[in-house]
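B., you asked whether I could sanity-check this one before it goes into the benchmark set. Here's the sequence:
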Amino acid sequence: MPSTFAAASRAAGRRPLADMASWGLVAGGAAVASVLVLMIAGYLLAESLPLLWQGGLTRFFADDGWWPLDGQFNMLPMVSASLLLTLASLLLATPLSLVFATCTVFYSPPVLSALLQRLVDVSAAVPTVIYGLWGLATVLPALGAIWPAAGASLLAGVLVMAIMIFPTLTVLIQSALQAVPPTYAQAAQALGVGRSATLLRVVLPAAQPGIAAAMALGAARAIGETMVVLMVCGNVVQMPGSPLDPVRTLTANIALEMPYAMGAHRRSLFVAGLLVLLLVACLVATSETVAQRVRRGRA
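And here's what the prediction gave me:
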């Protein structure tokens, strides 16, 4: 008995040390990540400031067009294309991911659920250039068969992007659904609420903050994607008049023109990078605001 008590005391003494070490590692990793993000933002801002001082931020939305060699830096068509591509692909992928995640977590047999989960994990690890290549070989010919005048366009980018972010959204939504305490569903079933009603009225509302975070991360991945839009969107700087028009996004513009850009042209590309960073920050802040409102509404 004394030896057992001593061993338990030593284990209890080591546990706070282990907890402190784990907390220190997590806090250190978070601090390093935060410093890196601030360094990136500071570098983009430092490279952009000389051009921003010359004409202000509004010139990037009010100039006559995107002719950087002539000192015209209108990025509004590229900002619009980035937002349209992101929002449309998110609206297309989120319901599919929600249905798929719900089926695998609550309805599928364990063996089938595990198999589907592995397939989703593998799909999330596929390089984005593979999705772009698949879009070139499959989506563009299919669109051409439906609309003969269709080619590389906003619509093609939306379809390929939605398939690309589907695995990421699915994995995150699955985690959000699994994080809901089982007692919620058990209490509803004890009151005689059916399975479907429990899912719709209890589980999904409780998982809303996690679902909102998943959508924000999916949108951030979509708005920062480069290879897919380079390969299937057409790379024409213009305001899209229809889904079949070719477009160019901010990230594609940076990738295409940075190798040869110089002077003010080069600095304008850093302004584009800063805009992408600001758009991602706005998406994350919006999702966090929605999640907090949902939490306060349930409190």
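One thing to flag: Residues 2-55 form the longest helix (54 residues). Otherwise nothing jumped out at me.
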